[in-house]
Amino acid sequence: MDTRISGTTKLFGIIGTPVDRAGSPAMYNFCFDYYGLDCVYLAFDCREDQVKDTLDAAKRLQIRGLNVTMPCKREAARQVDRLSPAARFTGAVNTIVNEDGILTGHITDGIGFLSDLMDHGHTVTGKDIVLMGTGGAASAILTQCALEGAASVTIFNRSREGLEKARAIGDALAADGVSCRMEYRLLTDPDLLHRTVRKASILINATPVGMAPGGEGRSLITDMSVFHRDLVVYDVICQPETTRLMEDALQNGCRKENVLGGRGMLLWQAAEAFRLYTGLPMPVKELKAFLAGKS
Ligand code: NAP
Q1: Is the predicted pLDDT of residue 227 greater than 70, yes or no?
Q2: Active site residue: 10, 73, 199, 288, which one?
Q3: Using a 6 Å cutoff on CB, does residue 262 contact ligand 1?
Q4: Is the pTM of this model over 0.70?
């Protein structure tokens, strides 16, 4: 790699903290190598209060693109010059493109989720969806589902504050003419959750419940009768690869091809960022083989 770095090499990277174990440098550098692009991707540790200085430096150093991870996504949305429509609705940014010193913030998580669904033969258009969670991942998914023509999204969340944030996104989408029925419910009533899932086509977990380390074996769905052949179950969690929710769905009637975990979303959100950076499609098949060889 170092033999190809020259005076014209373009710099990309990821900001957030911690980033020392981030998978994105390996992924993007593989893709740059694949196309023979004169680009390199590094990880930069950055706290939330350092985002402004970091983005000023990115302009000064002509860093061409930055991915943004926890805890900097909201502050990055406040500091960039422009926002994509999805980033404006969600108030968060995970990809920044630097065009001649103008920084545009995008959020690619929602597109990543949708692309992975489509890669598995599913769409959200016209569907009734249950979404658990209202954090960063959930907000991006909610926005993209609405923009993509979902019939309804019923949002369940633990805190009232989170539900109010989701309602603000729903109201902003409606004010922009996006037509999608949205309902906001607390997770305190498991019967209501289960009844709503029974009538839905797609169930999405966008909370960390079930995530390793520590949360393995947990799921917000405790009534196994909600699962059926045609229900699509999507858990955004990447670790473990198969969560308790997914295991329960598989063991209680859902079809294997309808039960999806978060790794596909992670890959496809990166693919969208790569497209924004380079205008090229990410070599997803080759990257999957490369990543499988690394694990
Ligand atoms: P976040 O912004 O912190 O939001 C967390 C959400 O989960 C909030 O709605 C929170 O509700 C809820 N929650 C947290 N603990 C809970 C519990 N014990 N019971 C019920 N609800 C709970 O986090 P995020 O960035 O959205 O991440 C959420 C999950 O998505 C994580 O597992 C993360 O790794 C994963 N993720 C995956 C991808 C991907 O590409 N696959 C991308 C981004 C994130 P309150 O409002 O009550 O706090």
Answers
A1: yes
A2: 73
A3: yes
A4: yes
